[in-house]
Amino acid sequence: MSVLLRLHGVRPAEVSARCSATAELMACLHVLAEPGHHPDRRTWVRTVLADLPEPAAADCVAFAPLWARFRTRLLLPLTAEGAGDLETELDAIAALDLGVFIQMAGMAIFGLRQNFGWPLDDGASAREFVRACGERSTRRGVLAAELVADPERFRVRLLGLLRVAGETFFGVLWRRLRPALDRSADRVGASLRTEPLPLVVGSLSPNSVIDVAEHTVEFSKLQQATVTVRGRGLVLVPTHFGSPHLLVKDERVKGGPQPPVVVQYPAEQHGPRGADTLDKIRERMLVLTDAGRLEICRHLINEQCTTTELAWRTGMTQPQVSRHLRKLREAGLVVSARHGRTVQHRIQTSRLYGIGYDLVAGIVG
């Protein structure tokens, strides 16, 4: 399954790279709601939850469907431009048309991309929405009922929780994270001025397939969708707490200007970077211990090759080569890009050279 971004005809003015405080806050809240999925954050989660006052701690649980796997569009950039600071973005949510707010909140509470078509100002549709959300989980049903009963109160309560989060743990965290995120956004912005858009967008994930000729980028995701960006705008948002996941949001709303398509990407995935973690170095070294994958790297070190050509050169079957290439992409050592009818694979030479340096840097600390 995958999300295909169609980038044909997208003007440079339609694309921007910038930070977003609410987007990073949502990534933090996702970790708090799903600590089992982020074992490396356990100490941080315990510290934050211990310091959160009531009723904010209870509200973090109650509102969790908004930042579960299907993240709410409310906390991602609502426009292409903006300062990216928390208070400004919260003010934008407060000023959002109530009908649009209800749609964006409702989509996330229901939590599935398809089948959201309930006009919640209609009594029968609202009851069906609450029932359908309740079938997915009790928590979703309760939150759906609250949204239907008094959407403005729902918004005030949500904004109150986000402001408490800003005052207790996120404000200090954001001041620490923002410089690195700004640098990532600046690097992507510079690339947008000098490189083809598909290459820039594809560089945000090691698991992308880029077709420069067709102006498309395909991301491997647990969903199936085709997104046409032309006329919508595209905002590329770096994240630290959202790592290693890449998020694509393209929901349309009724009754108002359409929000831009947003791609939230791990900041370290693009451009110059610091040393990798020891775990990432170990992963790459383990990937390269396989003789077949090492042989593929030797053939890719000087030129791009197709899967068919690699199979012919190495004597492996095409399925074997494809499996090895997937492992190399997951480790960030190979990038695949479609050119016409073929997919060309190329080695990330800088990351190969960097393994030794990053290993020493990680040990020295």
How are strands sequenced across the largest beta sheet? Answer: 5-1-4-3-10-11-9
Give the integer mean of the pLDDT values.
85
Main pleated sheet:
7 strands, mixed
Q: Which secondary-structure class do the elements indicate?
A: alpha/beta
Share in helix: 40-55%
Low-confidence stretches: 271-275
**SS strand fraction:** 5-15%
Any idea what the shape is? globular
Q: What order do the helices and strands follow?
A: EEHHHHHHHHHEEEEEEHHEHHEEH
Measured on Cα atoms, how large is the radius of gyration? 22 Å
How many strand segments?
Answer: 11
Report the total helices. 14
Distance between the termini: 39 Å
Mind explaining what this structure looks like?
The chain has 365 residues and is α/β, with parallel strands linked by helices. It is built from 14 helices and eleven strands.
What layout of secondary structure does this protein have?
Layout: E1 2-6, E2 15-17, H1 21-33, H2 42-51, H3 56-62, H4 86-95, H5 98-110, H6 123-136, H7 138-149, H8 151-194, H9 197-202, E3 208-211, E4 216-220, E5 225-228, E6 234-239, E7 247-249, E8 261-266, H10 278-287, H11 291-300, E9 305-306, H12 307-314, H13 318-330, E10 334-339, E11 342-347, H14 349-364
Parallel strand pairs: 1-5, 2-6, 3-10, 6-8
Antiparallel strand pairs: 1-4, 3-4, 7-8, 9-11, 10-11
Helix pairs in contact: 1-8, 4-8, 5-7, 6-7, 7-8, 10-14, 12-13
